[in-house]
Design brief:
single chain, alpha/beta, about 25% strand
Length: about 625
């Protein structure tokens, strides 16, 4: 038999090595459309042919600046004038479409290079539910970048829906970057905001399930930039659409605003992570089947007509139905094959020269539903009504614009099943948590939420210090503790409105965590000593990952948590394994057991518990530090 002559295919790493560039450079060229490699197999792996490699060279993509850190020139400042001109000419050829901005170093992000974020449980802020089967919700106090880093270990691919209401970057002291407000005169105003958002959105994407969806509120100040940014982060193909919300009903009557075009709406951008889903719809009623024959109940459904012109016009939709043709210039809305199916079973009848189908319950959806419209009118609530809702819970909250609970309830309802998980990492006043609790009460769901927000004092610090308050007392006046936590607490337990009206609690449970840091010196090369120190402090992160919040014991060698039902988690954080049998004795007989053991490398202990069907084992801290 003659041997088939197949063209050699190269992996991305082989091509990168051949051309002397990084693999990321090849991926960027593909993203920009400069080169399109073949995709093979179920995983759609990239494969390059000789023709692809020749195309890269002919397009002049492999410039000196694209190559991997040449030993002779480590920085563009070392290039001669002629070499720089050559590079600029090559870059001009590489035309691109999309969003380009100057990335900025953010102190919060830079800190993570020498200190790793961890979680510390604040038990005095825990809210318990007598019913232990009820889901436990999470509130994390701290910068959302640090919270997202932690969640990338504890909740990767676990979130069903994300809703965020980030700063709109209006220039009116609504956006803080590196501890300073960004005003309208800042020439890097937009690029700072994009740098800030891009880092957080990339971390957030990792948290979504493949079927996950994200909603982002925004106004005209950054809407256009945000759309391009999200196209880059989530993929243009995953853009679902935008929702317009009628957020205002009152005009501004100030001297400056009176005669200007005044915005009345805000926008939500909606993206899938990867896999398109069908949204839940509101049921408005049931279809009535008011006729009956020997087969079953049915209703008469007119076979409707539509224009036969334009892009939807098709000759195949013009045909005879039991002697009836569509009107001139019209076509049937239902195809011939479907009509024949109904006709073959005797369910087509003609009345007044019009065709009808005997439509039975098994032929269609029996419920009448309302579409998930891309417009929410003022009836669902406005920014003003949202502010009133918050004021009824907390006086003097200081928030000028607040999303109404009904608005967030609606998008959560449409997006997830009754036991889904919602994340809001710009939680602010806590509306998202409030919405989840209300929705659970209304339909008996077991949805959970994770809220992340900072504990900024918003200018009150000086005033509080002048009153002689200690640093610990002052912290209780921050956003997370005074607003977010107190709101969720009142909604769970019940409260009294300013007018004296009592509002019953909705029930629920809450775990409160604060981000702290462990010195690791250099995230790219953490010493064994620092790994040990970090592991000693990683217990609460693991508790969050495993949904086991009750600490049973902690000593110098190990820590044990439980969900207060059937699950126990043991964390052993010493190189010396002398006390490991002691920890095992306390948990191995439980129904469900997870053991985390300190290791300098891989999972050296995965085969040690094979005989225990109830036990799973993982190593730490490498999987955490990799995040």
């Amino acid at each position: 038999m003659k041997k088939e002559n197949r063209e050699k295919l190269y992996k991305i790493g082989e091509v990168a090595e051949l051309l002397g560039v990084h693999e990321d450079t090849l991926r960027n060229w593909e993203k920009e459309g400069f080169i399109v490699p073949d995709r093979i197999g179920k995983r759609k792996d990239r494969r390059y042919t000789v023709a692809h490699i020749r195309e890269i060279k002919e397009k002049g993509l492999v410039s000196d600046l694209a190559k991997k850190s040449p030993a002779s020139k480590k920085d563009f400042e070392e290039y001669t004038k002629d070499e720089l001109i050559k590079e600029l000419q090559l870059l001009k050829k590489q035309k691109k479409y999309g969003l380009v901005w100057e990335d900025h170093q953010e102190e919060i992000v830079e800190r993570c290079k020498i200190e790793a974020p961890i979680l510390v449980s604040k038990e005095d802020k825990r809210i318990k539910d007598k019913d232990l089967s009820k889901p436990k919700n999470i509130l994390i106090e701290g910068d959302n970048y640090h919270a997202l880093q932690v969640l990338n270990y504890t909740h990767k691919n676990k979130i069903d829906v994300i809703y965020i209401d980030p700063p709109y970057n209006t220039g009116n002291k609504d956006f803080i970057y590196n501890d300073s407000f960004v005003d309208k005169e800042d020439t890097f105003r937009h690029s700072k905001w994009l740098s800030f958002m891009e880092k957080r959105l990339r971390l957030a994407k990792n948290l979504l399930k493949n079927t996950g969806v994200i909603f982002i509120s925004i106004d005209d100040n950054e809407q256009a930039q945000l759309k391009l940014l999200c196209d880059n982060v989530f993929g243009e193909d995953n853009f679902v659409g935008h929702i317009t919300w009628e957020s205002k009903t009152k005009s501004q009557n100030t001297k400056d605003a009176y005669r200007k075009l005044q915005p009345k709406t805000e926008t939500m951008l909606v993206y899938f992570k990867n896999q398109k889903i069908d949204f839940n719809l509101i049921t408005k009623g049931k279809k009535e089947y008011d006729q009956k024959d020997k087969k079953s109940v049915f209703r008469y459904a007119l076979v409707e007509q539509m224009d036969a012109f334009g892009i939807r016009g098709r000759e195949t939709m013009v045909f005879d139905i039991c002697g009836v043709m569509p009107n001139l210039g019209k076509q049937w809305k239902i195809g011939l094959e479907t009509i024949q199916k109904y006709n073959n079973r005797g369910d087509i009848i003609i009345k007044n020269n019009k065709p009808y189908i005997k439509m039975r319950p098994n032929d269609e959806r029996t419920s009448i539903t309302e579409p998930f419209w891309g417009f929410f009118s003022k009836e669902i609530g406005t920014a003003e009504s949202g502010k009133k809702e918050l004021t009824s819970l907390i006086k003097g909250h200081g928030f000028e614009t607040v999303k109404p609970v009904a608005l967030i309830k609606r998008i959560i309802f449409h997006s997830i099943i009754k036991d889904g998980l919602t994340l809001d990492f710009f939680a602010g006043s806590g509306t998202t948590g409030h919405a989840v609790l209300e929705l659970n009460k209304e339909d008996g769901g077991n949805r959970k939420f994770i809220l992340c927000t900072n504990n900024e004092l918003n200018g009150f610090e000086k005033e509080l210090k002048e009153k002689g308050m200690s640093e610990k007392e002052i912290q209780e006046y921050g956003i997370c503790r005074r607003i977010t936590h107190q709101r969720i607490k009142k909604v769970i337990k019940g409260y009294t409105k300013p007018n004296g009206e009592k509002v019953a609690g909705l029930g629920g449970a809450l775990e409160y965590f604060k981000t702290e840091f462990v010195d690791i010196e250099n995230i790219k090369n953490v010493s064994d000593k620092k790994k040990l120190e970090f592991t000693h402090e990683a217990g609460q992160m693991i508790a969050l990952k495993e949904d086991t919040f009750k600490e049973v014991i902690k000593n110098m060698y190990y820590q044990i948590f439980t969900d207060e039902k059937d699950k126990f988690v043991g964390v052993y954080f010493e190189e010396n394994l002398d006390k490991l049998p002691e920890m095992e004795k306390k948990i191995l007989d439980k129904k469900e057991v997870k053991i985390y053991i300190f290791s300098h490398g891989g999972n050296d202990f995965k085969n040690d518990y094979i005989e225990y069907k109830n036990v799973k084992v993982e190593h730490i801290p490498e999987p955490i530090l990799k995040i």
